[in-house]
What we know:
Blueprint: E1 4-9, H1 13-26, E2 29-34, H2 37-46, E3 51-55, H3 66-73, E4 83-86, H4 90-98, E5 102-105, H5 113-120
Parallel strand pairs: 1-2, 1-3, 3-4, 4-5
Amino acid sequence: MSQRHILDVGNCTPDHFAIRRMLEQHFDVAIDRVMHVADAIERMRDTAYDLVLVNRLIFDGGAEGIELLRRAKSDAALRSTPIMMISNYADAQAAAMREGGQPGFGKASLDAPETIARLAKILRPSPVITEPRPGTSAPQATCSEPRPGITEPRP
Length: 155
């Protein structure tokens, strides 16, 4: 089974690792990470992602994640890429879906069966992993608010 490729956009380090842990626990995935909408668009042009996850508020700078949806869905080369908003707020999820996003999930429900089922519609569940891998159960950490100047080095 081939790995699915995911782009995580705008999540702080603790949230990124919590999301990564959940994804790797349930799916065979490779995950890239960027902090800015412009970087996400560039990466999406260079790499065929199976799923893009975008934070409601980009941690580095506070831009709105829905801007990524608007830009990607208005670009013929990118519009077919599934994008999910990460937000606990129902109004943010509804706004993302109006812009062409897939039904997303919140950080408070990372390990909920509904979240896993929603992701499984796009990603293939890992046939081997049914219980958490040793050392992968980390407490859910959240970041307080976006902070300018936090960037992820590019490979």
